[in-house]
């Protein structure tokens, strides 16, 4: 906790000593805010004719109004932030889920490519066998039947 600060400030033409644990700049800023509120009202013609105790109450009400509006805005922003955090969480969850699906799909594609490669090799062998059989003068159906029998035995 920082040391207590005492600062002399001028509010509505009068010197006050403010004390607090905030810095001097902050306490001067508070005094400037109050002076700005007083200056706002001093510009109004009707305000000049109001008794001084009512003037003080009017400024206090105005400052309380500013406070509650600011507090409401902070609460709204906190709710918005909470909603955005939830959306980010959901998006991260979706991203991870999609990454898992992508990895699974990539593995399936790899397996299918390997199976396709094997089928292409078998096709090439069968074509070579057929061509060889045709060149040797054998009937292709005899060769196919022999090949089918061999495949059945392998399984």
Give the structure's gist in a few sentences.
Residues 134-155 are annotated as: Disordered. This protein is mainly α and 155 residues long. It has helices at 24-42, 52-136, 140-154; strands at 5-11, 14-20.
Polypeptide structure, described:
The structure is a single chain. The chain has 155 residues and is mostly helical. It has a domain at 1-47. It contains three helices and two strands. The protein has a two-stranded antiparallel sheet with strand order 1-2. The two termini are 82 Å apart.
The overall pLDDT average reads: 90
Query: What fraction, in percent, of the residue positions are helical?
Result: over 70%
Tell me the distance between the termini: 82 Å
- List the uncertain runs: none
Keywords: Cell cycle, Cell division, Cytoplasm, Septation
Subunit structure: Homodimer. Interacts with FtsZ.
Protein name: Cell division protein ZapA
Pfam family, one: ZapA
SSE blueprint and pairings:
Blueprint: E1 5-11, E2 14-20, H1 24-42, H2 52-136, H3 140-154
Antiparallel strand pairs: 1-2
Biased composition (Basic and acidic residues): 135-155
Protein name: Cell division protein ZapA
Subunit structure: Homodimer. Interacts with FtsZ.
Features of the shown structure:
155 residues, mainly alpha, two-stranded antiparallel sheet, 3 helices, 2 strands, 77% helix, rod-shaped
